[in-house]
Each structure stands twice: as C-alpha cells, then as structure tokens.
Amino acid sequence: MSSFLKIAIRNLLKGPSTDPYPFGETFVPKGLRGKIKYNAKACVACRMCEHVCAGGAIQIREVADKSGLEFILWHNTCAFCGLCEHYCPTKAIRLTEDYHTAHKQEDKYRYVEKGFIKYVNCAQCGTPMVPIASELLNVAYDQVNKDIEKLRHLCPKCRQERALR
Amino acid sequence: MKKLLQKIAKKSPWLYRINAGSCNGCDVELATTACIPRYDVERLGCKYCGSPKHADIVLITGPLTARVKEKVLRLYDEIPDPKVTVAIGVCPISGGVFRDSYAITGPIDKFIPVDVNVPGCPPRPQAIIDGIVEAIKIWETRL
Ligand code: SF4
Ligand code: SF4
Ligand code: SF4
What we know:
The complex is a heterodimer.
Chain A: H1 2-14, E1 36-38, H2 48-52, E2 58-62, E3 68-74, H3 83-87, E4 93-95, E5 103-104, E6 112-118, E7 120-121, E8 128-129, H4 134-140, H5 146-151, H6 156-164
Antiparallel strand pairs in A: 1-4, 2-3, 3-6, 7-8
Chain B: H1 2-10, E1 14-19, H2 25-35, E2 47-48, E3 57-61, H3 69-78, E4 84-88, H4 90-94, E5 116-118, H5 125-142
Helix pairs in contact in B: 2-5
Residues 43-49, 60, 88-90, 92-93 of chain A line the site of one iron/sulfur cluster.
C-alpha cells in the first residue's frame, strides 16, 4: 500500500505526462520518415525512384508539349519506406520529418508532390535533353574540370563523338 | 430540448474503429492514441466505443480485403447517421503497397463515403489526432 502511495504522490508532483499536441508543441524523433520532398534541380531523371517505389507512388512522364519531364508523387500511397531516397544517386528525393498528413477527402487526388525538369538543348546539335545536375558530377568525379564541364552541355551522342575524337 | 442535446452531443463524439484487413500497424497507432496517456484523444472530448450503434466518428484501417468486405459494409450500415468517416493509413485510401492485389477490393471510398484521409504507413499518433480534429470539425456541422 505504501509503495502505491509513493508512486501516486510522485506522479502527482511530476505533472501530466500527456503530450500537449494538438494544443501545444510536440516532439519529432530524429530521423523520422515523413512526407517526401523532391528537388527537380538535382534530379537527373534516372527513374530509379519510380522503379523501386514500394507503393507505386512515383510517376515520371514527358509533358504533352515535350518540353520536359514531370515528376509526380502521390502522398496517399507512399509507405514512407525510404527506398527512393536510398537509391537516388543525387539525393534529389528525400524524406522529411513532416508527418502532418491529414486532409479532407476532396483533396485526395490533389495531395501530391510535383516537380518539372525542363529539357535543355545540346550545345552542339541542339537536341533536347535532360540537364545534367552538378550533384551527379559530384558523385561521379572527384574534381570537375573544364573538359567535364564542357561535356556536360552535350547530348550523349555528341559527348561520344567528342570523347572519341 | 433537441437543441440542447445537439449542443451537448457536439462536444462528445464517440469514436469507433473498423479494421478492414489491416496489417495491424495502423491499429497499433490507433491503440496508442486510445490507451497511452501520452497521446490521449479523450482530451478532445471523444471516446472510443465498442458498439457501432453508438458511433459518431468511424476510423477505418486496412485495404478492404475481399474476405472482410461484406462484414465491413454490414458493420458500417449499422452506424447511425450522421457519421464522419476517417481513413487511417494509405491502405484504405489507395490500397497502399497492396494496391492492385487480387486479395483486396478497396480503396474504401469505392463503397463508403470518406470525409478525412490520414495517409502514412502507419501515420504517427499526432497525425491521427490531426485527422480526428478535422473529423470533429465536420461532425459539428452535421449535427
Ligand atoms: S518512401 Fe517508399 S513508397 Fe514512398 S515514394 Fe519513396 S519508395 Fe515510394
Ligand atoms: S529523384 Fe533521384 S532516383 Fe528519382 S529520377 Fe531523379 S535522380 Fe533518379
Ligand atoms: S497503411 Fe501500412 S501500417 Fe497501415 S495497415 Fe496498411 S500496410 Fe499496415
């Protein structure tokens, strides 16, 4: 009985153990996997994320006017598994610590993360191509020198020609 | 008298949970909001109940598997109107990772009108609380 009283008194002095949320601030454990954020600037459209996505949440498609690629991620089927982030070579896709996902039914299909990659033209022949992100160069090379910087603006075909010259 | 009852009822919606074939992940998070003082949803004036006949806000988890479909729909029909429906987890909303499987008949909104979605696999207790707050707001307009 006395031990019970001790616990009761200790709990009384300690105050409430309830997390104040939604009336106050809450805590976020470090490394929590939440809603995904996409950065079109760093994306090289390798489509690895689309390929590995467990929930089939990602689609990368050419837009109707063929001016670039559109990235769409539907939060309503994302399992927060983190495979996309793990396999993305340039870390263009990341899981944030934002876990606030509640929304009304009418927004169900609007609850997406979007991005657009505009094609650039090859510096030599003018063919439209996906721009090569500097993030990718940093992964591929220790140091990006002038030659590499030049090759970066060429389409694969012209790059091959230049390299074999 | 009816007005007074409406006013009181608004402050205390009863929650009811339906498992439509979930993997149990979302249910554990729901149990967390009910049983662990840290995330106590009863602070919002609501309370989990054991009978569909008492329910005001319905929380559904799982992708509506073929096996439980009829039972879930029957149960849902037993809940008196007006009611607010909240889909918890990506499973009831889109099928989640089970999407396109022969074993599931969802998404749930093919058969049941949904009001609020709380995606996540599973969503955090705080996200579920967000969804319940949203549901209470809708509930107040329906009474
Ligand atoms: S976290 Fe998993 S389910 Fe979500 S987009 Fe990435 S790969 Fe797909
Ligand atoms: S987000 Fe990453 S994995 Fe997906 S296409 Fe872009 S670079 Fe590739
Ligand atoms: S959303 Fe994820 S955790 Fe919830 S029932 Fe479906 S698979 Fe399980």
